[in-house]
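#data-curation
PF: Archiving a pair of folding outputs for the training set. Convention for this channel: one message per protein, sequence first, structure tokens after, nothing in between. First:
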Amino acid sequence: MKQLFTTSLALTGAVAALGLSVPTLAQDGSREGDEDFASASEEAERERGRGRVVVQPYIEASQVLVAEISPGDDVLTYTQLAAGVDVSVTGRNNGASASLRYEKNIAGNDGALDSDSLSGVARGYATIAPQVLTLEAGGLAARTRVDGTGGTSPNPIVDTDRESRIYSAYAGPNVHTEVGAAVVNANYRIGYTKVEAPDAVIVAPGADPVDVFDDSLSQNAAVHVATRPGDPLPVGLGVGAGWRQEDLSNLDQRVRDMYVRGDVTVPVSPSLAVVGGIGYEDVEVSSRDALRDDDGDPIIGDDGRLVTDTSQPRQIAYEAEGLIWDVGVLWRPSSRTSLAATVGRRYDSTTYYGSFAYAPSVRSSVNISVYDTVSGFGGLLTDALVALPTEFTASRNPLTGDINGCVQSLQGGNCVTGALGSIRSSTFRSRGIAASYARQFGRLSAGIGAGYNEREFIAGEGTVLASADGLTDESYYITGYLGTQIGRDATLSTNAYASWTDSEFVNAGGSSAVGASATYGQRVYRGLSARAAVAIDHFESDVAEDDITAASALLGLRYDF
């Protein structure tokens, strides 16, 4: 049974949920925060109820059964104890959502392993000076599996020897003010990401281990000053500058991006504008090589990661310096619909950015995002946390309690899972698209999402990572959820996912995973409720010897204080 979770679900989990949604134009700071073209989901959020603070602590005790259907027939049981708290704050000047959970799994038979985990997700903001200064922050704690394709998944409650844990947090101020006819927007964010892994992952017998990401510090600052069309000129004019840097501990890698640009907004109609911008950008990715032994082989430390040779100078892995430009359209036919789409030149190639938000009512929303960025794992995860909404319900695996990587919300940008698509230590260029639809019908809530992500890895010539330069990981994913209130005292929720990955790395290849789960909850007395859950997962991989199918079931009690 241990083999079941050593190779299954670990190869594709992060892409088993939605994917990354990042602000498009905000990536270069050119028009982030312009009031005339705010997202439709943000407008809908302003119309929701305000002045509410909910803090809901709880404890749980459950019995879990995990059964292997194929290729074996092992059965394991666990006693699961958990404590957590869910927080929601909605106010005129403040907003936040958070979910934090500690869980202990006690093995009930031989062949199973005890485990414990801390998981959570949070995102919020607080107004320091109304309509001028806000402070925002977010964080994530997740238990994951890492393998040669770079995929991660919610770790099952067995085989903790190959478990990895991700911790990430960011914070920073946002400034919005007006100076005469000019609108000024500025922001600064600092984020830290840490991956705890027992050792580097060996994909196949005889293969070189994969150097897993350790930690990084990412920083991002931008300022943009612009006039609105018609005040004082017929067109809107703007100028912006920004700086982005991520410092990775693995081989002392560094991603640095600095730019300055000007832009113009030409109104075509009250709801449509043509936009364009031109500027200068300097992007550089650099690193040091690994320390070598007398035979010239790289040295691996006790943590399973490559040891950095700090005595050697930094080597350039990628640089792009010169002119950048883009042209596009901004369309806003109503306060509930907005579209931004641009094409241009960046990173020495053609780039595409875009976003679409449609919120026909406060009970439904459609969001689409197209993105293109150069980053390390930590920087991309910080971007994903920034894009999370401030009003959400955390989505958790009903059997393990782990964060699924997505949140349930009628706002856009509701997943961080696409950012978890690779925990390789190399930096990369990430391009893709993510889409989601959410709807609430009275007591029934539903959502579906899909996306595509490509990561082209960047490494310096002559370094130990050189073989990864130019290689890509691709992933496709789709997920959905459906939940409803049954009467006054019962709830029913279901989740389903499917994902496919393909990697150019040696001994990685392709893989796929599909699965579904259902949970039923019944209030017994006041804060006490009973719950039952079932799940089934199927996994196929070019690396694994066998296709694997497993089923799980849970019975338990929960008390909400």
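PF: Second:
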Amino acid sequence: MKKRVFALMLAVVMLVAVLAACGTTEAPAPAPAPAPEAPAETPAEPATPVTPDADIRELPRDETLYFNGLNWGSPNGWNGYSSNMNNALAFNQENFGARVPMLETPYMFNPLDGQLYPLLADGPPSWNADQTELTWKIKAAATWSDGSPVTAADVVHTWDGGGIQSVAGSGFTSVIDSMVAVDEKTVLIKSALTDDGGPVNPMMILTYIIQNHVMQKAWLEDLAARNGNDAEAMANDPGEDIVFSGPYGPYFYDDTIVIMLRNDDYWGQDASMWGRLPTPKYLAHQLFEDNAAADVAFASGQVDVSQGFIANVQNLWLQQGLPISTYMEQPPYGMCLSLPTAFFNLENPAPGLDRVEVRKAIAIATDYDLINANAMTGQSPTFAEVPRSLMNPTPGEQAMYDRSKVEHLQWVGNQIDEANQLLDDAGILVGDSGWREIDGEKLSYQVSCPHGWSDWEAAMEIVAAAGEKIGIELTTYFPEWDVYQTIVTVPGHEEKYDIFMMWTDSASPAQPWSRARNLMTNEYLDWGSNWSGNWGGYSNDRVEELLAAIPVMTSNADLVEAYTELVEIYLTDIPSFALMYRPAMFHAVNESVWTGFTDANDGRNVPPLICLNGYAIADLYNLELVG
């Protein structure tokens, strides 16, 4: 087992800068790995789905990397145009880096250093002087699985679809005006412009080129033709004939397993990219009934890489002696990038929630150390170690605000006496009901999160428990997710969710701006279905001014000043409050079969994102068989 003993704060410090103004660098070759043993000769296997025989699920264990925690329920196909495939082994377009084993992006993002590494791209992207145009080139070696070259025309058609834009691309229409194929291998991205002719948001354009897959124009045209150019029909097409550029393609799926097969003609063997094939021949994801079943399979060595929350994960090696490890051996064990947050309903507030004294009292009375111990089992730095702001724990984001100017506003929690004094001073006193009252009305709120999300439920139980200590009645309510999501995403909330839990953005080239927007902007308030953020309905004109200004700032001093003001506003008004720091993805590995996974001490600079997202795919080129 890997040995990685070091203190918590050193572990946090070792997570190198995620910078708001992200740099770029050439993609380094991964650390050399021994060539895999040549497998016994077998008939050539197809790179597209086949009619399975009885043994297709019986994969060679020494050629297969197994995952869990991604797929729940049967996939619907391999169509990269669609958001309906439910095939998370193949598809995931996150702002911290897309999943790239099958469809690839121009660049790979690395949250450890905030850099963009070329994948399909040849060298770094280039801005014009006023950042209204971004140019990037495609590697000469880059080809599709049918042998044809990847071209700028593919990139442009992926963006505009000949008039039928994908769901993923539509999310960037406010920042990207158009894309142009300058020549066969050169792409020009033109920014949407503000009223004064400046770019709307250069950071989001950088996010686009690490988040959005490139698809083949010819295949997309075939998809449209066979579905009568109907976008809904196109999205429901299983796409089993998908043409892809990545190292793995479709092989098989049913209601028990998803399997991808290595394309041994993959262009990335070229010296301009990885220089060789990834080690595993197959990537596979079994479909488990629940987390418990998935954890048992992981502990037994049936699964190599787990993207699931495992309570007290350290017990697997400390008490059971299993060959299991995480990115760090000491807490927080992983790379914490997001801030699961409790939002106050400010659009349709219950009596008292419009008072900042009430919101602050609840927030400072909550015992966050208990949340860390019970809900996260230590898999998060504490708010004493990384004080609350709008930033994740990485040093790069922490450096983007001046802590000395907001220290008086930060809190660590379980501050019961201070919360009671705050309420008393505001004249919010205990009345005949036995609870604090305003104008004779008891302060009583519902505290909610989805049922079955055990770590979130534990966190919200602890929020509710703080209420009794400060005279505010807080009652938990945990509806099923399919009900919960239909309410929190509707402005004003059809049912009173007074205090409710949702996620935040994690890491991207647009952070920490994107998270500040996610938590505070009022631009989502008129959306009939809001999946983007600020679910509580907070609005502040000065916040909007700062969010508009930051993306085009070039001075680091100006950025720090602006972000510090945003943090000050957030911690003063308290429209919501973070409950914990959390990994963007959990990443635990069982080294019974494979070894060589990323490690915080190995110097390889590969992020712990399950070997699949962004620059984390470099892990697949470093793996070797145990023994």
